[in-house]
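Comment thread on ticket #2218

A.B. wrote:
> Attaching the input chain for the structure job we discussed in standup.
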Amino acid sequence: MDPLQSYNNQISRTVMDLDPDALVHCASKLSLQDLSNMAMTCKFFRRIAYSDSIWSNKFRENWPQQCTSSSFSQISEVREAYLARRTALQQFKFVDPLNVQLYHSPVSYTHLLLDKDSIILAQGSIVQIFKIDSVFSGGPFQLLEDHNARITCMRLFPLKDTSLFRSEMQNADNLLVTSSCDRTIRLWWKGRSQRCFRGHNGPVTTVADRLLGDCSGKVLGTGGEDGTVCLWSLRCSGKRGQHALKTTFYGHEKPVTLLSVAGHNSSLLVSISKDAKVRVWDVNASSSSRSSCCVGMACVHGAPVAMKCHETLCYVAAGSSVTAIDLRTMQKVSTAAIHLPKLYSFEILASKSLICTGGDEKAMLWDIRKNQEKPEPVADLDGHIGHVTHLHMDLYKIVTGGPKDLYVKIWETDTGTLANSLTCCIPEELESAIGLSAMAVNGYRIVTSSCGAEPGLFYFRDFTNSSRPVSLDEDNPSSRFWE
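C.D. wrote:
> Ran it. Output below, let me know if you need it in another format.
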């Protein structure tokens, strides 16, 4: 054969000419997201991505103790079995999670976070960090006691998004940020206060939900009881936090209660104060002309409860309604929800166009695509006692609870169907316990802390390797399920 012709034949071959078994072997190394992207490209790659051998391997890797010959007997495809179990675990539809209850002091936890391998709790002015692996063995925990007054807010930000440390030290860790009534903001890493920011003239009330700016330099936003919004540089310059204050925005007449970064422009920071006045600040505006940094103003009705930005819209939960404001025009474009007589909590899942609101004795699920003058909920998540003050929402589940309710309830996100009900205290103490003081959810894990008779108790559950599905067993008070 002519060498040129042989070369042309070789370069005319495509990936579809490869052996399917070889492609399946390569695809087995991909993540779930990459497999999904592969399946959407064409029918050929979809057959490869849906191969039973890929999903059998994933099943064995994640749940080897559950992978038996009967694991897939009820489902025609292994992929369906894998995804069905993964969804059920994400929705906590099991009665045998790995769990532990810990009691450390008679003071209620006010803030809770779940990191990749840690449980972070705030109690007054103190932060406690428990390594998840050591929780079950009763191992030691870290006490962070640098604050001198009550902690008002806790956030986790990827350390790699900051320039606080040298590049070789930036890894997959998260940076813990706390604000306090002692007028300071502290940045924690590896169990130490690495930076302390001072600049507010009163208690620091809130921290922005995301970092501002681009890769050239990230900025942290905070709000205070003095009505100011402060911006802090997250760069390595400045020993222990000195000279980190970039600028201070003035304009609010009441304490700033909430901060959220615009979804379409990371240089825009949205703030709301106790008088329900909304302001938008441009981080890139000249610091020498601070009054011009306010690029938009609006006002809502009622006491602010929560605020979330998505793309060009800002959803503000205040009083008894959730209002959507267009950040380009500062006009109210819709009323996304009306929860009478009063709202106590709010969450949004933008990828599914859903929001959830917590009120008296129930939560409500809303579809934000239905812009009606009088919006109607798509589901009532009822059965609670008292106010629903705590909400978590992700692709699989909605978790709801409150300070007067002994149970935290789990609902399917798509349908609003009740999936499980978990106690937020030790079952033996149900008669003397009172509800939920704080909550954190991350994937297959949930941490709840109780208030009332046992205020210093927190309850950790991990559903990763659960095997017994929920049932209608009313004799099991720690986990109940109703169809």
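A.B. wrote:
> Thanks. Noting for the ticket: The first strand starts at residue 98 and ends at 103.
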